[in-house]
Amino acid sequence: MKYAFPLFSVLALAPLVLPGFHVTLLTEILIFALFAMSLDVQVGYARMFSFGHAAPYGVGAYVAAFALSSGNLPLPGAVLVAVIAVFILAIPIGWLCTRASGVAFAMLTLAFAQLAHAVIFKWNGLTGGSDGISGLLRNHGPWGFAGLESRQGYYWFTLAIVVGSAFLASKFVRSPMGTAIVAVRENEKRAVAIGYEPRRLRLAAFVISNTWAGLAGALHAGFLLFVSPELLHWTLSGYVIVAVVLGGAGTLIGPMIGATLMVVGGHQLSAVADSWPLFMGLLFIVVVVAAPNGLWGIKSSIANAIAVRKAGRLEVDHVAS
Amino acid sequence: MSLLECRGLTKKWGALVAVSKVDIAVSAGEVVALIGPNGAGKSTVFDLIAGTTQKTSGTVAFRNEHVEGLSAAALTRRGMGRTYQITSLFPSLTVLENVRLAVQSCEPRRAYPLFSRLLLERTTEEALKWLHRVRLREHANTLAGLLSHGDQRLTEIAVALAMNPKLLLLDEPTQGMSVEETRGTVELLKSLLKDTDMAVLLVEHDLEVVFGLAHRIVVLDRGRKIADGLPAAVRADPGVQQAYLGAGHVAH
């Protein structure tokens, strides 16, 4: 992507000129964008509609919170522990969920998410129940990381992780495994006939997608320094699906744009109207009806139309000469 | 021992016996056609060999190994490729991507999770080679779903060949093609099969295609094998004439 470096530069320099509130807003956008991108790996590339993507996000956040509070780990260590924990948990859950497909898969993911929500909500002694865990600290640990305490420091930490993840995700979807996952999405019978194992590929997509969601959740815990069962609620799973569809599934960048709109829209519209989700809902309906490939799909369609027109003009010129 | 050896293949759907005690052997380099009237059990035999349908009884040995219970994907990796009666491609991927996926599936790193430029270049080169051989090189960047029916059938053959199979199961390769396209495809298949030890098991309704390609013909009727031999012998077999070919074919 030719705009990646300029965009990264602008985002990296943003805290030097923006007021604190906007840096906080940008951090929130980056985390939600990473969360939406993680779901896109599953929904856009593997066509596995998960209605429970809040579960790995919430579990990642809680594990990071435990690691920060009880484990007293430094922040990067807590994030790493959360990622490993979600990765390990995603394997058996993914193994069970990928036994089904379509609506049954979606219902299984929802069931597991509701189960995780119930456990965290009820297990007062460990999770703080409905109060959650608050008063977390961004521990320095023996290696420093004092810079992460500040708003700007944490923003740069998040930016580095999100940009790194987006880079890795773009490598992943064009990798042999990524293309095989798309092949299974396109025509499973054919994919089997040329030697691919759909179940394994779906499981891989599930685990990778969940692990990235866990990473986003861990960043959320470090960002707000507070976690609550709301992070595993089905409404968050719904929000992130809306972000993916709004931006354009199967593009990685589209869901990140969708997530940005959701966060910014939420902040701006909630200031003028209590019923701001209504406006987002209307936008969602318009996009689904008018641009089924999402907002990024509109950009791709325009680019394709221009390319076709240019090619046509070249051909006409060639014939004329 | 033959490359493929099926003994006593039987498939029952409840009380209906779709395939009954069929023996088929295919040797390396041999083109064997499986013919019979509609409902004779040809496609079922194909599915039993390819592992997509579970047999009721009988054995299937491929490359001296009993392959019962192996998944279709595992069979493919052991060297059994197939095409489908109804075109089965990845429609929103390009022709090149369709063939490249097949080439990639033979690589040890077929499910490597990170992008590799070297692997991409190698698999692309190999895929283009196959597209050139089936005369679809100029359509490499066309979406497979936008190709004409005949070209989609050829893409399917290229996908199957790109995995360098030891045995290719061709399910009605000229189905839905015009007379011209059919002739072109037969000539193409002949040229592709020349100088190779790949075996082919072919199901085809068009007898011109069958007699043009097959070294040996197996005839099925109502799930049973009624003839197995050289094309001339099968053509002259009174039982086959009665069941399938009809008197009109005998004189040719």
Can you describe what's shown?
The complex is a heterodimer of chains A (321) and B (252). Chain A is mainly α and 321 residues long. Chain A folds into two domains: 276 residues, Orthogonal Bundle (ABC transporter involved in vitamin B12 uptake, BtuC), CATH 1.10.3470; 31 residues. Helices cover 77% and strands 0% of the residues of chain A. Chain A contains 14 helices and no strands. The longest helix of chain A is centred in the middle third of the chain and has 27 residues. The two termini of chain A are 35 Å apart. The relative contact order of chain A is 0.17. The model of chain A has no long low-confidence stretch (mean pLDDT 89). Chain B is an alpha/beta fold and 252 residues long. Chain B folds into two domains: 167 residues, P-loop containing nucleotide triphosphate hydrolases (Rossmann fold), CATH 3.40.50; 75 residues, no CATH class. In chain B, strands 6-7-8-3-9-10 form a six-stranded mixed sheet, sandwiched between helices. Chain B has a four-stranded antiparallel sheet with strand order 2-1-4-5, covered by helices on one side. The C terminus of chain B is likely disordered. The interface between A and B is medium-sized, with 27 and 34 residues.
List the helices and strands and how they pair.
The complex is a heterodimer of chains A (321) and B (252).
Chain A lengths: L3 H14 L2 H26 L8 H16 L5 H23 L4 H21 L1 H4 L23 H23 L2 H11 L1 H6 L4 H27 L9 H14 L5 H20 L3 H15 L3 H27 L1
Chain B lengths: L3 E10 L2 E11 L4 E5 L6 H9 L6 E6 L2 E2 L5 H6 L2 E3 L12 H11 L11 H17 L15 H13 L5 E5 L7 H15 L5 E5 L3 H7 L2 E6 L2 E6 L1 H6 L1 H8 L1 H4 L2
Parallel strand pairs in B: 3-8, 3-9, 6-7, 7-8
Antiparallel strand pairs in B: 1-2, 1-4, 4-5, 9-10
Helix pairs in contact in B: 3-4, 3-5, 4-5
Give, in order, the helices and strands of chain B. Answer: EEEHEEHEHHHEHEHEEHHH
What count of domains describes the coordinates of chain A?
A: 2
Mean pLDDT score of chain B = 86
Helix content of chain B: 25-40%
Shape of chain A: globular
CATH architecture of the largest domain in chain A: Orthogonal Bundle
Low-confidence stretches of chain B: 247-252
Question: Number of DSSP helices of chain B?
Answer: 10
Q: What name goes with the CATH superfamily of the largest domain in chain B?
A: P-loop containing nucleotide triphosphate hydrolases
The total number of structural domains of chain B is: 2
